[in-house]
Amino acid sequence: MSDKKGGLAGVTAGTTAICTVGKEGKGLHYRGYSIHDLCKNAQFEEVAYLLIEGELPTTSQLSQFMQLLYQNRNLPATLCAMLEILPPTAHPMDVLRTACSMLGSIEPESEYYHGKAIAIRLLASLPSALLYWHHYHHHGIRLNFETKAANMAEYFLTLLHGEKFMAENKFAKMMIDTMNTSLILYAEHEFNASTFAARVCTATRSDFYSAICAAIGTLRGPLHGGANEKAMFLIEQYRSKDDAIAGIQEKLTKKELIMGFGHRVYSESDPRSDIIKEKAKALSDALEDELLYPVSEAIEKVMWDEKHLFPNLDFYSASAYHFLGIPTEMFTPIFVFSRVAGWSAHILEQRANNKLIRPTADYIGPAPRSYISIKQR
Fold it and tell me: Phi and psi dihedrals of 264, rounded to 5?
């Protein structure tokens, strides 16, 4: 099929049994399960298991899966040493990409250690790696990975803020629930740019870590993974709803790109947006916020009224993460922590029925011409 729109828009690049993203009005489903049902009833670990294994876990399967995640949180001493020599000014996505690559050198894929075992290792250890680097360089401490946190949402927030903070925070349960929901929402989204990069890498028969590094590097780009950070920078510019309305209208007049709105696949709404928006609103009310959430709603209204553009998952994730006390530069890394589940499922699916991915291109360069010697040019 010709790529007339550019960027492979509308081009089917393969088949998958992992996810459907709203085609033909079917909404967003992970292996047949509605994203709304999963966010309402499941914890992220159940969803990660579903994506990697193909079915929702039983009680015993989930218990075993979570125990494996718990056991894989610690980092090798050599990886910690490497994180200590990375500069404090490094981009957090670069830290994750480097940590993944280093772990692949310390614990390489082999005949005896591969696939799902590495997926579990990365799911468990990438949050540890980022926060070890963060606390070492910004607070002068070497992080202890031993916590009582029961799941990944609680583990991340506990490592970030400390056990005392979480134990004494009256909104801790709400914070963990919001984080859990966000992880589910970001876990998978069919052949997006980073997932496709992982599959292209996998199709060459490269190793698991290389495919994840390819995905992380692709997600680092602001047109894919950095939109929630850009949305936060945008929201924080305004000091009132009226200020936001005037500011966005001015940006639209200047034809500036407003991050966090519209989507390459969805045409009328992003089914994930309302879910995270509800969580952001609940946190806003609990924290008695009178600025960020009202400004966000004002921006949303202008974008819809003026451009008929809807907020995607990234827009209200920004304010939700801000209310959770997460530094803005960590917004996209959270995407990584979650999407490792989806990337891993796609790597495994590609391996199960592999064929080298090598598209063709329509040539638009010069017609054939004769070589001219350097003295005659």
Answer: -65, -25
Nearest one of 274, 293, 275, 291 to 283, comparing CA atoms: 293
253 contact partners, CB below 8 Å, separation of at least 6:
none
Which tokens go with 113?
């250690």
**Helix (DSSP H) and strand (DSSP E) numbers for the chain:** 17, 3
**Site of tokens 């602001």:** 222
Closest to 53 in 3D by CA, of 125, 119, 142: 119
Q: Token digits for 353?
A: 């029925």
Asked if 310 contacts 273 with a C-beta cutoff of 8 angstroms, the reply is yes
What is the DSSP track for 230-278?
HHHHHHTT-SSHHHHHHHHHHHHHTT---TTB--SS-SS--TTHHHHHH
Each residue's pLDDT expressed in tens, for the chain with a length of 377 residues: 455 556 666 677 789 999 988 754 458 999 999 999 999 999 999 999 999 999 999 999 999 999 999 999 999 999 999 999 999 999 999 999 999 999 999 999 999 999 999 999 999 999 999 999 999 999 999 999 999 898 999 999 999 999 999 999 999 999 999 999 999 999 999 999 999 999 999 999 999 999 999 999 999 988 888 888 999 999 999 999 999 999 999 999 999 989 889 777 776 788 999 999 999 999 999 999 999 999 999 999 999 999 999 999 999 999 999 999 999 999 999 999 999 999 999 999 999 999 999 988 889 999 999 999 999 99
CA dist., res. 84 & res. 359, Å (int): 41
Distance CA 267, CA 351 (A): 32
225 near 215, Cβ under 8 Å?
no
Question: 302 CB contacts (<8 Å, ≥6 apart)?
Answer: 244, 245, 248, 249, 252
Q: Supply the residues annotated as catalytic.
A: 224, 263, 314
